[in-house]
Amino acid sequence: MATSDKQGFSTTYDWAKSWQDLPWAHEEPTLFLAELCRGREPGRALDLGCGSGTDSVFLAEMGWEVTALDFMPRALEYTRQRAAERGLELQLVEADITEWQPPATYDLVLDHGLLHNMDAALHAAYRERVLQALAAEGDFILVHWHPLFAGQADGRMGPTRRDRATIKAFFAPELEEHWFACEEFEDLPDMVGGGMTQACYWFRRNRAWQQPREMLEQLRATLHRRGFDTQAWLAAGASGRPALAPAHLARLLGPGRLGISHVLPEPAAAAGVLERWALQAGIAPQEVLQLLTAFASPELAAVCLPGAPLCGQCEVRFCKRQRHR
Question: Which residues, in sequence order, are CB contacts of 109 under 8 Å at separation 6+?
Fold first, then answer.
């Protein structure tokens, strides 16, 4: 981070008499952490900007192998002390995330408020490190401030407010939103801009981008399950066949289903979105379109219908509707 950022944090740590005095201290673990720990076996966790140490200690208590990273020595000392009081061991790293090289990948990467305190000039480096650190099957949890109302300015001491669309676009296309929650705080000190909406994101790797051919194989498996002759359908060509309505194609490509686009495309732009995705994946766009046509048309396999998709008949596990079942 910039020298001015370090000076500001150093002043706060020098002022604090204990970790509870820190403005960003929190007693309870960050939202989604407890649910995540119930849903998967402990692995390696990276706490970016560990601050008062609450999340690092919680994860260590849950059996995770925790790396707590911060560029403030006092933050690491607070974290070490709190872990020692519970008989826990952590790996402590004093570093700036934008300059640090992850020595491994992590099953969980956590940022409780680091990004929204960072100079925008460092955002690209931050994003690169997060993607380097996150394992292929990993989870990324982020806490970030949103505006409480449209046009709200940041306070003179930050943190920076960004809306949900901006955050999702920042991590797209590599990451997709798995869960999202937010809470409004209407009365905060003027120095931090008054009220804000605190948002918590749970991201995972976007499988449509990470494994496009696997997704198409799942789609083919669904067609086979429905008794549809995919090979004959592709060999016969597209002339005179039913076409997907642009609005339905957009819905298929959007974040609520296949996640090829992190936002719902405009219907008129949907075909272009699909073509760009296919080309970057090295797949013929026309073949993908024909498979989706068979998959989603009421006259054909009729699996992924607009209002009532047959999720119980579908093998496309990368779809958001399947991930949330």
Answer: 45, 46, 48, 130, 133, 134, 138, 139, 140, 141
What secondary structure letter does DSSP report for 265? P
SS3 163: coil
What range defines the domain where residue 317 resides?
A: 209-323
Distance between CA atoms of residues 162 and 302, nearest Å: 40
318 and 173 housed in the same domain = no
Residue type, 7: Q
DSSP string for 28-93: SPPTTHHHHHHHS---EEEEET-TTSHHHHHHHHTT-EEEEEES-HHHHHHHHHHHHHTT---EEE
Tell me how far apart the alpha carbons of residues 112 and 124 are, in angstroms, rounded to a whole number.
18
> Residues 85, 108: one domain?
yes
Chain segment 147-156, per-residue pLDDT in tens: 999 999 998 8
Are 128 and 220 found together in one domain? no
Q: Do 191 and 217 fall into the same domain?
A: no
Same domain for 216 and 102: no
Band of residue 102 on the pLDDT scale cut at 50, 70, 90: very high
Residues, the chain:
325
Task: Please answer whether residues 106 and 80 qualify as being in contact, where contact means their C-beta atoms are separated by less than 8 angstroms.
Answer: no
Residues 71-100: pLDDT tens digits?
989 989 999 999 999 999 999 999 999 999
Residues 191 and 289 in one domain: no
Closest Cα partner for 251 from 242, 243, 239, 259?
259
Distance CA 14, CA 16 (A): 6
